[in-house]
Amino acid sequence: MRPRSITLYLAMLISPYAGATESVCAKASVKAEKEKILVPAYMSGRKVIGKGEAYFYTAPDEQCQVKNIFIIPNDVVQAYSDVENFTYVIYWNVKGKDVSGWMLSSRLVDTGTGIGPNYEQK
């Protein structure tokens, strides 16, 4: 096989799997939009727990992990919604840049803080 043929052959082998993952993530996103439970702003503070990197996901499914985007234990995020075992969060780094996406809920603990007032208190 010539080098170009090898590249084309490898692309044909990999493509069906990439498409399958994209399909899983697209379906998980649609499902999440319908089933999400919003986190009240006054309860939105979360801290990363556990060991090692806590990865972001493009959709609430283990197959949708973003390989190079993660935060570490003790980083603080704001939670916006929950779906099954995932929480949609936003993280701001020290330069003010943000990253948002789904994260495994098991990697987060409630801090008892939030970014808004508690309108439910009387």
Q: What do you see in this structure?
A:
This protein has one helix spanning 3-35, and strands spanning 37-38, 45-48, 54-57, 65-71, 76-83, 86-92, 98-104, 108-110. It has 122 residues and is an alpha+beta fold. It has a single domain (3-110), classed as Roll (SH3 type barrels), CATH 2.30.30.40. Strands 1, 2, 5, 6, 7 and 8 form a six-stranded antiparallel beta sheet that branches. Strands 3-4 form a two-stranded antiparallel ribbon. Strand 6 (86-92) and strand 7 form a beta hairpin. This is SH3 domain-containing protein.
Note the topology.
Elements: H1 3-35, E1 37-38, E2 45-48, E3 54-57, E4 65-71, E5 76-83, E6 86-92, E7 98-104, E8 108-110
Antiparallel strand pairs: 1-5, 2-5, 2-8, 3-4, 5-6, 6-7
Estimate the helix proportion, in percent: 25-40%
The helix-strand sequence is HEEEEEEEE
SS summary, helix count:
1
Strand content: 25-35%
Indicate the CATH topology: SH3 type barrels
Give the low-pLDDT segments. 1-18
The outline comes out as globular
State the separation between the terminal residues, measured CA to CA: 75 Å
**Total strand segments:** 8
CATH architecture: Roll
Radius of gyration: 18 Å
Q: How would you name the CATH homologous superfamily?
A: SH3 Domains
Q: Provide mean pLDDT, rounded.
A: 84
Please write the CATH class name: Mainly Beta
Largest sheet: 6 strands, antiparallel
**Protein structure class:** alpha+beta
Structure summary:
The protein is of the alpha+beta class. The chain has one helix spanning 3-35; strands at residues 37-38, 45-48, 54-57, 65-71, 76-83, 86-92, 98-104, 108-110.
